[in-house]
Inverse folding.
C-alpha cells in the first residue's frame, strides 16, 4: 500500500450528474478517474444530511455510535442548541493516524469545529461561528491565515435572494470562498508534505441548493434564465479542474474522491408538527403569547411571504426577534400532554419519553403515527408522499441511540424538509420554501479512487459512506477496530493483502464545547443563509 492518502471532498456532488457529464466529455478529469481508477455511487446515511453523513464518513460508524444527527438539538427545556465536533463519540481517521505517528492536514471538513489537537494541521469548516473563533490547530496558524489571505472567510460573505444582483453575487462568492481556501492548502503543502490530507469543497452543494430550478425544467418552480441556467454545470466543471490540478501536483498520493450525499430538486417545506397537532399528538400551552396565537392561526408563512415580496427578508436585522415574538417555538409546547413532536431538517418524529413509559404504549403510538403518515398526499401528484418510514431500531445502533428520533422518513425522495427553528413554519402542512431553496440532498454521493494502489476502470457498486474510514485505515496498515460499522472496500485495490498492525485506541469521550450567545447568532444566521433552519 502507498504511504500517502489524499481525500478530496466535494460536498453534495451527485453521482448521477458526474456520470452523465463525464460520459459526455464535459468533465474530463472525472472521466479519467473513472477509466483509470475505481468509481461508483456512495450510499449515504439516512437522512442524507451533512452532520450525520460527514461524521459517519470519518468515523466509520452510524449516528447511533458517533452521536451527531443534525445541526441542532433541543435541550431539556425545548431550547435550540447547536451541535459541534466535540460531541462526536467515535474516533476519526486522523485520531488513528496520530497513534501511528502519521501527520495529517485536515481542512474545511464539515463538523470539525472546534479544531482538535492532531499530529499536523486542522483548519475548520463552515460550522465555525466566525473568524474570531479558534478555527485552527495549531492556534498561531489562525493569525498567519488572517494576515496573509485577506479574502479568507468561513463561508459565503453574501446571501442568496431573488434579487438578480444577489443571485450573481452569491454565485461568485461560492467559488471565491473555496478558491481562497484552496490557495491556503497548496501553500501549506509547499512547506511540508503530509501522510494524510483531507480537504472539502462546499461550492457544489451551496450552488445546488439555490440554482437547481434554473437547470431543471421539470421543477414545479422552474425559471428560465440564461445567466443562471449553467450555474450547477459550471460548479462541476470547476470541481473537475480542481481534481485535475491536485492529481497532477501530488502524484505520490492515492486519491479518494467523495461526497457526503447526492442532489436533486427541492419542492416545498413541510410542517410535520402541524400534522401531529391536527392528529392529537402535539399540544401547545394555553397561556402562550396571544400574538403567537394570532400569527399561528393566519400562518407565519403569510408574514414571511409579505417580507419576501417587499424585498425586506434579508435586510431585516431583527428577523430572529420577529420570529421569536410571532412564531411558535418548542418552548410553547405543552410537554405534559404532547406524545410526539417533530424536530430536525427532514422532519423526524420523537416520542415524548416522559409521557410514554412502556414499550407497549411506545409501539402502539409509533404504529398509529406511521399508519397516519402513510396517508399524507403529495401536493402535486396527490399520491402518498412518504416513500419510506423507519423506526430508529431499523437504522441505528450504539450508545447514543437514545438521543435519536423514533420515526425517520423519506418524504418525496427527500424533496420536502422542515424548519429546525420554528415548530410550525406554516399553518398549512405544505408551503413554499422560506429560504429560496430549489435543490436539496439525495442518497447517492460519489466514491472514486485513483492512484498506484487502485484497480483501473472498475465500477464499485456497494460503497457505503461508513466504508471510507476503514478503507483509509486499511491503506495505512491499521487493523480495523471491532466496533467500527463500515467495511474495507478491498475489491477496489489491486492487491488485497498487506501487513496489518493493530492500534490500541480508546473510545473517544465527548466533552461538549458550548458556544457563546454571539457565536450562536452567527451560526443561526449561517444555517438560515444555507437553507437549513428556515
Amino acid at each position: 500500500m502507498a504511504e500517502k492518502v489524499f481525500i478530496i471532498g466535494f460536498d453534495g456532488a451527485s453521482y448521477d450528474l458526474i456520470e452523465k457529464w463525464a460520459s459526455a466529455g464535459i468533465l474530463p478529469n472525472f472521466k479519467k478517474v473513472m477509466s483509470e481508477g475505481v468509481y461508483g455511487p456512495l450510499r449515504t446515511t439516512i437522512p442524507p444530511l451533512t452532520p450525520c453523513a460527514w461524521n459517519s464518513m470519518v468515523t466509520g460508524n452510524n449516528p447511533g455510535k458517533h452521536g451527531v444527527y443534525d445541526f441542532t438539538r433541543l435541550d431539556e427545556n425545548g431550547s435550540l442548541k447547536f451541535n459541534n465536533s466535540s460531541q462526536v463519540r467515535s474516533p476519526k481517521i486522523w485520531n488513528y493516524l496520530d497513534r501511528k505517528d502519521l501527520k495529517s492536514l485536515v481542512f474545511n471538513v464539515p463538523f470539525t469545529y472546534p479544531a482538535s489537537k492532531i499530529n499536523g494541521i486542522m483548519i475548520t469548516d463552515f460550522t465555525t461561528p466566525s473568524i474570531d473563533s479558534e478555527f485552527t490547530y495549531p492556534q498561531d496558524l489562525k493569525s498567519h491565515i488572517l494576515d496573509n489571505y485577506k479574502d479568507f472567510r468561513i463561508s459565503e460573505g453574501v446571501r442568496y435572494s431573488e434579487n438578480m444582483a444577489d443571485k450573481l453575487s452569491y454565485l461568485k462568492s461560492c467559488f471565491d470562498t473555496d478558491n481562497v481556501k484552496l490557495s491556503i492548502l497548496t501553500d501549506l503543502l509547499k512547506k511540508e508534505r503530509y501522510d494524510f490530507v483531507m480537504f472539502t469543497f462546499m461550492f457544489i452543494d451551496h450552488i445546488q441548493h439555490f440554482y437547481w430550478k434554473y437547470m431543471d425544467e421539470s421543477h414545479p418552480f422552474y425559471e428560465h434564465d440564461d445567466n443562471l441556467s449553467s450555474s450547477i454545470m459550471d460548479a462541476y466543471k470547476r470541481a473537475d479542474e480542481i481534481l485535475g490540478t491536485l492529481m497532477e501536483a501530488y502524484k505520490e498520493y492515492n486519491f479518494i474522491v467523495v461526497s457526503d450525499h447526492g442532489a436533486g430538486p427541492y419542492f416545498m417545506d413541510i410542517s410535520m408538527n402541524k400534522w401531529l397537532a391536527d392528529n392529537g399528538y402535539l399540544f401547545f400551552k394555553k397561556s402562550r403569547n396571544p400574538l403567537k396565537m394570532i400569527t399561528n392561526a393566519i400562518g407565519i408563512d403569510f408574514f414571511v411571504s409579505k417580507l419576501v415580496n417587499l424585498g425586506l427578508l434579508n435586510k431585516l436585522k431583527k428577523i430572529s426577534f420577529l420570529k421569536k415574538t410571532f412564531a411558535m417555538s418548542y418552548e410553547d409546547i405543552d410537554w405534559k400532554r404532547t406524545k410526539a413532536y417533530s424536530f430536525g431538517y427532514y422532519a423526524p418524529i420523537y416520542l415524548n419519553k416522559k409521557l410514554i413509559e412502556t414499550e407497549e404504549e411506545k409501539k402502539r403510538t409509533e404504529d398509529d403515527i406511521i399508519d397516519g403518515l402513510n396517508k399524507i398526499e403529495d401536493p402535486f401528484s396527490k399520491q402518498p408522499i412518504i416513500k419510506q418510514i423507519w423506526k430508529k431500531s431499523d437504522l441505528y445502533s450504539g450508545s447514543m441511540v437514545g438521543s435519536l428520533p423514533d420515526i425517520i422518513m423519506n418524504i418525496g425522495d427527500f424533496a420536502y424538509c422542515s424548519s429546525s427553528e420554528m415548530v410550525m413554519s406554516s399553518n398549512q402542512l405544505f408551503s413554499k420554501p422560506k429560504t429560496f431553496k430549489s435543490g436539496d440532498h439525495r442518497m447517492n454521493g460519489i466514491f472514486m479512487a485513483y492512484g498506484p494502489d487502485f484497480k483501473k476502470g472498475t465500477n464499485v457498486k456497494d460503497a457505503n459512506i461508513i466504508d471510507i474510514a476503514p478503507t483509509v485505515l486499511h491503506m495505512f496498515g491499521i487493523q480495523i477496530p471491532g466496533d467500527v460499522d463500515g467495511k474495507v472496500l478491498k475489491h477496489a485495490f489491486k492487491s488485497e493483502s498487506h501487513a496489518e498492525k493493530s492500534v490500541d485506541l480508546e473510545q473517544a469521550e465527548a466533552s461538549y464545547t458550548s458556544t457563546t450567545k454571539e457565536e450562536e447568532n452567527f451560526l443561526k444566521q449561517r444555517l438560515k443563509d444555507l437553507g437549513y433552519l428556515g
The chain has 17 helices and 20 strands. Residues 268-432 form one domain. The longest strand covers residues 444-450. The first helix runs from residue 15 to 23.
